[in-house]
Specification:
- Helix content is 57%, strand content 9%.
- It has helices at residues 9-22, 27-33, 41-47, 53-65, 87-90, 93-110; strands at 69-73, 81-85.
- It has a two-stranded antiparallel ribbon with strand order 1-2.
- The radius of gyration is 17 Å and the shape is globular.
Length: 111
C-alpha cells in the first residue's frame, strides 16, 4: 500500500519549507538550547561557542520571523533581551531530542 502523503506535492512543499528552516546551520542547536528555558544572547554564545555573533543574530531573527521563538525585551534596568520558544518551537523539542539520540547511537556504532 502506497503512502499517498509522500506523493502529494503540497505535503512535499510544506516538508521542504520546514527542512529549509530547521536544517540551516546552527538553527537546530539554537532551538534545542531553548528547550531548557529562555536564554539571553550571551547564554547562546556560551552554549554554542563556535557560532559567530553575526550568524547567531541572523538565525535568531529568522527563527522569530518563522514564529519559532519570541524575543522579549524586559522593561527593567538594565534592559535585557530574552529569547524563548513559541508553542510551534516547543513542538520541535521531541523531534530534536530524537535526532540527538539517533546521532548518539550511530556515532557510537561507527567508532
Amino acid at each position: 500500500m502506497k503512502n499517498e502523503e509522500s506523493h502529494n506535492p503540497q505535503v512535499c512543499n510544506v516538508f521542504h519549507q520546514a527542512i529549509e528552516i530547521i536544517g540551516r546551520r546552527w538553527t537546530g542547536v539554537i532551538i534545542y538550547a531553548l528547550g531548557n528555558g529562555p536564554k539571553r544572547f550571551c547564554e547562546f554564545q556560551e552554549a554554542i561557542p563556535d557560532i559567530s555573533s553575526r550568524l547567531l543574530t541572523e538565525r535568531l531573527k529568522e527563527l522569530e520571523e518563522n514564529d519559532l521563538i519570541i524575543r522579549d525585551v524586559s522593561t527593567d534596568r538594565p534592559i535585557q533581551v530574552f529569547y524563548s520558544l513559541t508553542p510551534k518551537g516547543e513542538a520541535l523539542q521531541p523531534i530534536l531530542k530524537s535526532i540527538g539520540a539517533w546521532a548518539s547511537d550511530w556515532s557510537k556504532k561507527e567508532k
